[in-house]
Structure to design on (1356 residues):
């Protein structure tokens, strides 16, 4: 951590800051410049609150050198983490996973038909939303527990582990009992109470990046879950908000190699929500595999034009199958496998 | 609502969409262009899910003409709403309110001292965080219920209504009992379960704009609360995330006149979180008043350099007092009053 | 084009707008809603200035249905354009091109060595900056004409067509004489005088997307060049500016399939400027090929740590060669070839 | 400047970097951490190219402490600069200036009528575009030299200094001869050749912030002009590009106090282009004055609904007059004057 103080700072103020840092067991090196006094702080700076130091009127700026996360940091955990989702392994050199299914569970028949379709096409997990975060209070809000039970039936019928989004702590027990991979949506990435609750269970968590959150904030949210005791975290990029209007979000594929540098956690890509347009899903899926992603989560519907939500971004099963076939070949080029 | 379909769309597809809309009680007008067929849809289009229609492969684009919100819409509620916060009125031609206080409640003595200071300076409400949303799991997370009780004591000592942030539904009863104005932070603006729970109580809600949420999404979150039955919503702009790095966020003051066009709800400004720098707070506060804001929420601390959170953006009481004195004069110029 | 007027608009104002549109040869259909009067305007709406209509105080909003570009629009030119750069064909089903070379030409020996290296590795064109747009006036500004002449020598030695950035009209003659593909940098994407000048020559232009320009604005800049008479335009995505700080820019690969829907022009990707980090270049290059890009432009340097500019994002020749070898295999999977 | 190297870096690499820096006359202090070696570099670091150092594979990150600009830096020029525009002084404690006029000069009669109107309303300079940067090649491109001559006539008639936008170097002589304040538009903020040309003349320059440029980049563009020898630079904020869609741009008023901290140059605000909506111009103008701006530049038209460009954001003269009257009173509150 680097602290820059203005040249005219009274010595007493400078000393007070240095003593405060040393009292925390940190060591401080001074660099004298023409216009600033700069201090290098060495030790476990994750415990230092930079906003507190910044309140001193003589402090000009504070810069972190070391990352503020520990448990997610590859520096302290060099080998890849592999997360086991009810038998399907994600990360490291394991096979690239493909999670397929509808945005919303709409009924028993619908989810069973889609589950069989995506399995036949090559998917290794089934997704389906039962509790839906919707921008409008007048839009369909999901089937709730009924939807979860239909997902359970689809798992029984196909053997595919199931993935669904948890929106609040009060349903955590239900998810721990019935769901194989608990998805935390973009809008809840910094719902810290929910993250703390997830830290207390052992179920794998699929943590989506927030719409406008930096990679560092995303990793800090994973740190919340891991610091609580649950190390089963899979990251999921789903596009960020930018000024562009032709796509719903901007899919940031450079996070794949970058997250793999910074962290040991697996990372998968959601091209459906990122683009909001099924016509872009195949090419973005192939690009994600080429970039080194550990998996894909893709919206698939039997009748997209009759879907109750997000039909515009859902693939039909046949197109999903073609995508997987091409994806397998891309995977081979970069030395990975895919079912 | 305008629906654009590609020229080559089979008549059966076109008919199916028109029939679907008419079945919902909407009327459809057709416009034939050289390259597109365009349909104008008239009626209560808030019930139409545009993503569903967009799933049709012949649909090129869908554009809403009418706003997707109803209860927050000034079109259907032309007069300004005035929200009563335990006797302090916010909005319309009422006095401009100033909410002052620390980021976090740190102890009984601290909050009492600050409460007396901000009251003496001219504040009409007291803010103080007891449950704190922090990016890092290693940072101070707030005093919780203890902090709320210290706030209650500060209210007893000064008579100032108290404002504090609610982070999850399980504390709602506590807030309804003890807090005068329930703040929903930027990170929870789209925590829809929390919004629904707030719709069931009558306490006033201070709804902060999300870091990267559009004005429309913000108004839709207010709509969630109002649609649930709680019409006591005050909006609060606190800066949005942009590419700029010299300020923590970019304070968007144009939302003040814009929100007043679109909605009848009061809007206040938080210059402390927006800028992240106490040196910018006074000028942004005066600018907010000049722009027509119904109030300000400002971080004030007795010892910012020893604060447990966000010291860098907190004013000392004397500077806060100066700000209020100047603010009163600006208010007069635009025909408003301020205590 | 859809024009929405407020309900209370005087009939005379409504009539005046309709007459103005009809006088331009457009036809107008009226849709009456409960709260708005909506008009659908059919015909060549590229000639209508929406800001002019928006100045009418009774107009609520204006929405374009048809794209504002014509010559770049795939609707009117369904087959892919193939651009011939001194014998190297770009676009359609032609081979994927790889343009390699240093950020800046630093001397004759340097550019010759790199040119031979990239050719041997598989590149089909050579890049090198002679006129450099630098944020700081104190940074190296390029060798100018001397640099162009070294590029010419490198072309003579290797046979590779050369690509270099033009920063102002006064050097256009020099570029037309010596350069094979004229690059327009992100900062000049909306330097309209320069675009007009390029419209008057026949040389192929590599038009980079601006740092914060929408796809529509980018296509409009291509339209400027084509409307002037030069149809040889190749688009190049190089990352957009977002809030993320771990990468220099955010590479938006979804533009590849999207631009191919909207336009017939070829599109290539610059992963070096997008990421600003050589460690991310290989995976982003492979992703770009998988996404369907028509080519890559990559910074390669013999001694990146001694480069005069942008060393941090330059690959060494051996890594560049490995990248091309993997890229060829990805190209095959999606049915394309690459030298 | 702080350089962070990975722990495993070979001593030879470390030494090579340190020697390189010392050879430039800089002094280097070493800080040893558990996971990194950190170096503090003291001296004139504006001459160091961080990208060059970043190319070393053992370098993890580089952070600047000192600002990269010198001539615009308040640190080396503590007193406010006051720029004289043909007798009208801008900056410091001078009167707040108001520049009014149409987006485009459309004819002699139009500009004369508006010039008289804005003067009568209280404006101290006249704006008017003769060369227009337009997104579409099919939109009105301005009257060119003819427009400049009409501006000259308007100056003769009213005595108001004239402001107009220069788009390319080849018209610089014309502007130096006829225009009082040369405006550089947002799209040309990083047209470095144009900035260099401006450095060689003495005419005052109004440098608009780019659509997506940071404050630091903006100050660096001012540095280009000043480093060339022209110290007469006035900065102008005109809104930045964000995800918000209800306004054309997001007006960032916090730049006013921030720029005044970092630099001694005057700063004015353009609320017309920032918002794109005349209904927001008055409140944003008053806010700008309250924030401490040295001036305003506002679009005014006699017949906005017939304007050839940007009518939607133009005020009529009577509203412009009301705005100035209110602005004067706001100016008094903060201790400034306004004509």
């Amino acid at each position: 951590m680097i602290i820059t103080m203005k040249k005219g700072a009274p010595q007493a103020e400078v000393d007070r800051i240095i003593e405060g840092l040393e009292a925390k067991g940190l060591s401080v090196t001074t660099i004298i410049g023409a216009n600033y006094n700069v201090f290098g702080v060495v030790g476990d700076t994750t415990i230092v609150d930079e906003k507190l130091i910044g309140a001193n009127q003589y402090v000009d700026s504070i810069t972190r050198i070391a990352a503020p996360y520990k448990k997610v940091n590859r520096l302290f955990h060099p080998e890849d983490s592999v997360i086991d989702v009810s038998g399907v392994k994600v990360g490291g050199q394991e096979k690239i996973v493909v999670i397929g299914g509808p945005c919303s569970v709409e009924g028993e028949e619908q989810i069973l038909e889609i589950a069989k379709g995506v399995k036949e096409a090559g998917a290794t997990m089934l997704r389906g939303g039962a509790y839906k975060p919707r921008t409008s209070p007048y839009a369909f809000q999901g089937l709730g527990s009924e939807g979860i039970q239909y997902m359970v039936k689809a798992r029984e019928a196909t053997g595919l582990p199931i993935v669904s989004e948890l929106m609040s702590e009060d349903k955590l027990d239900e998810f721990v009992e019935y769901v194989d991979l608990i998805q935390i949506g973009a809008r809840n990435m910094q719902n810290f109470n929910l993250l703390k609750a997830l830290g207390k269970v052992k179920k794998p968590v699929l943590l989506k990046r927030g719409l406008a959150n930096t990679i560092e904030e995303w990793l800090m949210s994973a740190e919340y879950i891991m610091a609580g005791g649950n190390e089963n975290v899979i990251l999921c990029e789903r596009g960020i908000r930018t000024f562009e209007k032709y796509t719903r979000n901007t899919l940031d594929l450079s996070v794949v190699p970058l997250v793999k540098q910074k962290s040991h956690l697996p990372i998968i890509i959601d091209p459906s929500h990122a683009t909001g347009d099924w016509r872009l899903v195949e090419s973005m899926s192939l690009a994600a595999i080429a970039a080194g992603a550990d998996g894909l989560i893709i919206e698939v519907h039997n009748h997209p034009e009759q879907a109750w939500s997000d039909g515009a971004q859902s693939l039909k099963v046949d197109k999903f199958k073609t995508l997987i076939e091409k994806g397998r070949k891309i995977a081979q080029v970069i030395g990975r496998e895919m079912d």
Observations:
- Chain A touches chain B through 53 residues (CB under 8 Å).
- The CA atoms of residues 224 and 241 of chain A lie 24 Å apart.
- DSSP finds eleven helices and 14 strands in chain A.
